[in-house]
Design goal:
Blueprint (H helix, E strand, L loop, with lengths): L2 H12 L21 E4 L2 E4 L3 H12 L4 E4 L15 E2 L7 H4 L5 H24 L11 E5 L5 H13 L5 E3 L1 H6 L8 E5 L3 E2 L2 H14 L3 E3 L6 E3 L4 E5 L2 E5 L1 E4 L15 E11 L4 H7 L6 E4 L5 E5 L5 E5 L16 H14 L8 E12 L5 E5 L5 E5 L5 H16 L5 H5 L12 H28 L1
Length: about 450
């Protein structure tokens, strides 16, 4: 293929950028923006997995709940992720468990693993059809040097109660996994789903439960006190309790700015594959695949027979800003990487590319707790890219805590989050660490290309 032709295809593919995630559209029944002053028992900022799950549980427990969302439900990370319903595999164990007792570390692993079953139950309870495939998922190695790390992490997980098995090269081929993935850790629990349909299913359930949802209603400020006053552009909410389920956007509200940072993650989706192209992959069980890179690569098939690939490059914007802008360098890297891992798809065009923000703390653990003079401001952030299942269950647990009953797994997540340095040192530290990870990953990928030449 000529260089000019390839460049033309790349330009066409990168022109498929969407300001929304690839899974969602603005709902036809957009809820009107808040106007005037209202009161509630609890006001929740953020209508993603955590906020909507909390609203449903609070309503079930008898609370009068108001949810405000600056765009529409699912606009943020809940509608932009890769759609893995996943437990504790591929967690950053080496960061997360420093200074923790084995008992607490085991509870944290259980929190992630139990969250898978929690979501499965909620899909049935709320009759949410989100194309869930209970396939399990695989953390795979693409180079022999990754086996040691994958096995070591698998051992840590096993010691703390996570159930998985190692698949060697022959077992991977027997499952029909594409040949670029040499070996891996397989977790049978969980699988893949359509996150847009999942979050919209939670939205429908919340509206049926008479949760008052106000979309196009950003939180401008709040005033602490026994009754919290939340101000929005055209109104306000008064409530004894505020829950900030705003994840990567929380630092912009003046909270957790020295505890979590937003990280920009990107994704690409191909056009639908033909029967011949699907057959060239094999992949009959459609397991979600993540790799053992420092900045992991991920690959999955969707119900519409497209491939979605995510991550590869990660970026922290200065000052914890979250601009909704394209990241062409990331899409370009994802596209090239897709062609290397799945070479039979080199001629398949992209349908969409998009970006969004997760949040992470210095130890990669969830950040959950209360603040304010009356300790009536609750928050959850720091999903670190593992939030689909875990944040859903965390919202539910926070609702129980608000109503006076703290689940044991929620108590296990309450700890002192490490403090991050101020800017510009924070920008240098975070992006320096990401650059180092990219350098190591690029070095390994060059070895693969050299071996294939």
């Amino acid at each position: 293929m000529s260089t000019n032709l390839e460049r033309g295809k790349e330009r066409a593919d990168l022109g498929k950028y969407r300001a929304l995630g690839g899974w969602v559209e603005k709902p036809d029944d957009m809820q009107h923006a808040l106007e005037g002053n209202v009161s509630a028992d609890v006001v929740i900022a953020g209508a993603g997995f955590a906020g909507l799950s909390a609203a449903l549980e609070l309503t079930r427990l008898g609370a009068n709940v108001v949810v405000i969302e600056r765009d529409f439900a699912g606009f943020g990370a809940s509608g932009r992720n890769a759609g893995y319903l996943a437990g504790a595999m591929a967690l950053e164990y080496d960061l997360m468990f420093r200074g923790l007792s084995k008992e607490r570390a085991t509870q944290i692993v259980r929190y992630y693993d139990d969250a898978v079953g929690f979501v499965e139950d909620k899909l049935k309870e709320h009759d949410i059809d989100c194309e869930y495939v209970q396939s399990g998922w695989i953390r795979a190695g693409v180079h022999p040097s990754q086996e040691k790390k994958i096995r070591a992490d698998m051992l840590v997980g096993t010691e703390h109660g996570h159930k998985s098995e190692f698949l060697d090269h022959a077992q991977m081929r027997a499952r029909g996994i594409p040949p670029a993935f040499l070996f891996g850790e397989y977790t049978p629990a969980g699988g893949t789903l359509h996150p847009g349909k999942y979050v919209m299913g939670l939205r429908r359930a919340a509206l049926r439960a008479r949760v008052k949802l106000y979309e196009n209603t950003p939180l401008l400020s709040y005033t602490e006190g026994p009754v919290i006053q939340v101000k929005t552009p055209r109104g306000s909410v008064s409530a004894p309790v505020l829950l900030l389920a705003t994840n990567a956007y929380t630092p912009q509200l003046g909270l957790l700015a020295n505890k979590v940072v937003p990280l920009r993650i990107s994704a690409i989706e191909t056009e639908s594959l033909s029967a011949v192209q699907l057959a060239s992959l094999d992949w009959p069980r459609r397991e979600g695949i993540v790799t053992g890179h420092y900045s992991m690569e991920s690959f999955r098939l969707t119900a519409r027979n497209t491939i979605i690939s995510t991550v590869k490059r990660i970026h922290y914007p200065y000052g914890s800003e979250t601009p909704n802008v394209p990241a062409y360098d990331q899409y370009r890297a994802l596209r090239a990487n897709l062609h290397e891992r799945l070479p039979t798809l080199k001629d398949v065009a992209l349908r969409h590319c998009w970006s969004g923000y997760i949040s992470t703390a210095g130890n990669a653990l969830p950040v959950v707790g209360t603040t304010g003079a009356n300790q009536n401001i609750y928050y959850t952030a720091g999903c670190s890219g593992h939030g689909l299942a875990s944040q859903s269950m965390l919202g539910n647990m926070l609702a129980q805590k608000i109503r006076g009953s703290e689940p044991p797994l929620l108590a296990a997540l309450r700890y002192d989050t490490p403090t991050l340095p101020p800017e510009p040192f924070r920008w240098c530290l975070v992006n320096g660490a990401l650059a180092a990870a990219n350098t190591l990953d690029d070095r390994l990928n060059r070895k693969l290309r050299h071996a294939a030449a």
